[in-house]
Amino acid sequence: MVGRGLPVTVKKLQEAQDKEERLREAVKEYKDHIAAGKKTSYRVVGKKYDVDKSTLQRQVEGKGQTMLEFNATKQKLTPHEESVLVRFILESADRGFPLRHRDIIQYANVLRHSRLGSTCEGVGEAWVYRFLDRHHEHLQPHWSKSLDTQRARSLNPDAVKSWFDLVEKFIVDAGIAPENIYGMDESGFPTAYAGKERVIGARGTKTQHKQGGADRENVTAVVTICADGTQTRPLLIFKGKNIKESWVKGNSINAFVTCSDRGWTDGQIGCNWLKDVFEPDTREKAQGRTRVLLLDGHSSHYTIEFIELARKHNILLLGYPVLLDADVPFVWNFWWYKR
């Protein structure tokens, strides 16, 4: 099958890189000849490597910049910052958290603002495409699949192998003890019962369909279980602006209760949970050792602040594949209890 042709921008970049490499080789050969007392000239060496003799002379004498060096000074990120970003993108994908364009923009702007201040102009969507072109040898775009499609295909041999490779690399080979391995997931529940219950209707009719209450609201439960059978305090997220007294009344399991506009988790809630629940609840058992936290690769928790907070406390984040979510047994037990 014939592969896709390279974009024009990538071809131009490759040509510039090839020219740069020829120039470096020409400079080295000229200097080596002079150091060895051999007779040579800029014209002869330049012709051999197909570079302009004047450009070669300037480089030998240490004057001026190459075109790539000049272009680098106009980039929003320095070469080192771009290298850091590439490594972070690859590391995130390797751990089960592939980044989208908007994620790359966010992380790039963090690097840029940390160097130039928060008032400097950030990067945009067009910059991401140029960035990907510059690093096409390491980075490649992929189409993501819908969650339902992923769930239907998640148990294929490649997916299973990738999962166990991930576990072996970051958990087994790293010697992470079971008491420091945690799986976290979230599930939403309506506040009113949505299952089958006994109701009264006209004799001779079949199943009675009951309309769901208009006041039903979603509550998100976040649970975290450890490989040694223990668990941290659960997180409950109600829909609202402020926490109501009824939400925390009778909180026998000491759940961490909070709220959001939709009753869903978000980046800020995720950071608060990591800082106020997970880290202190698991700190004593860890005794300074690395803790592994497995979470959904599509989770809204995975923000810059969440990542930095985890890094600060030696918490390794890994994204588990679909159908391995912690919510499967949890959801079943929850609904069974509500019956």
From TrEMBL:
Key word DNA-binding present: yes
PROSITE patterns named in the record: HTH_CENPB
Database matches in InterPro entries: CenT-Element_Derived, DDE_SF_endonuclease_dom, HTH_CenpB_DNA-bd_dom, RNaseH_sf
Keywords assigned: DNA-binding
Name under which the protein is recorded: HTH CENPB-type domain-containing protein
Pfam families: DDE_1 (PF03184), HTH_Tnp_Tc5 (PF03221)
Residue span(s) of domain HTH CENPB-type: 69-141
Record keyword Electron transport present: no
Molecular function terms from GO: DNA binding
GO cellular component entries: nucleus
